Amino acid sequence: MDGAWKCNYCGTVAPPDAQQCSCCGAWIPPYGEDDDQSPQRPRIPQRPLVPPRRFEDEPPRHTDGPTLPVGTLQGKGTVEGAARNVQLRTEVSGNSSNTTTTIVCNFCVEVRNREGRPVRLVPVEMRGHSFEGAVNEGDWVRAQGQVKRGTLRVKRLHNLTTGAEVSTRSTPVAVIIVAVLLFAGWMVYVIGFAGR
Predict the structure, then answer these.
(1) Range with the lowest mean pLDDT among 103-107, 175-179, 187-191?
(2) CB neighbours of residue 27 within 10 Å
(3) Which residues cross the membrane (predicted)?
(4) Residue 168 pLDDT more than 70?
(5) Beta bridge partners of 105
(6) What is the rounded average pLDDT of the residues 118-131?
(7) pTM higher than 0.90, yes or no?
């Protein structure tokens, strides 16, 4: 494949649009870096493409049009690219006496191939009770998190444009457990002792 690379760690051949080795997880060099400068990414010489062998029960593959990476996100993942369509909002939930505020930052990371062409958008969401740092339109970011319903949910990311760490904070689980235990103890007292 023209532009394909071979992983120095495991020897797996990957397509030119890959950002990470599918076998061992090694990353490609930063965008714009020449392959000759990176010892981990030796180039594979161009050779004629041989169509893969198909089995009889396989459906035919469509080869028309550009080949883009599969857009299905699963499990954990890391993306790096330009932040697009950055939106910051505040969600308020609860009743009139007990309200909670959650800050939500949504944006898409524009993933690019090694030639600098955009190949896909990955939706990213950060949510918590506080938000530290800033993500602006066009900032180059690296985010790692868990994928839920097609969106990469992250608690912390690195803004490579500004060099800042951007993070959200939620209420610690220990605080929630203590509050529930105090409420349960108060209910036992009210029902057991005050009801007599």
Answers:
(1) 175-179
(2) 13
(3) 173-194
(4) yes
(5) 88, 126
(6) 86
(7) no
| C-alpha–C-alpha distance, residues 69 and 173, integer Å | 37
Q: What secondary structure letter does DSSP report for 87?
A: E
Q: How far apart are CA 78 and CA 104, in angstroms?
A: 19
* 151-153/13-14 β-pairing: unpaired
Question: How far is 2 from 45, CA to CA, in rounded Å?
Answer: 7
* Of 4-18, 38-52, 92-106, 129-143, minimum mean pLDDT range: 38-52
Angle 79-80-84 from CA coordinates, rounded to 5°: 100
The answer to whether the CB of 7 falls within 8 A of the CB of 23 is yes
- For the chain, residues classed under CATH 2.40.50 are 78-174
Indicate if the pLDDT at residue 38 is higher than 50: no
Question: Domain 78-174 is of which CATH architecture?
Answer: Beta Barrel (2.40)
* Identity of the residue numbered 2: D
Residues shown for the chain: 196
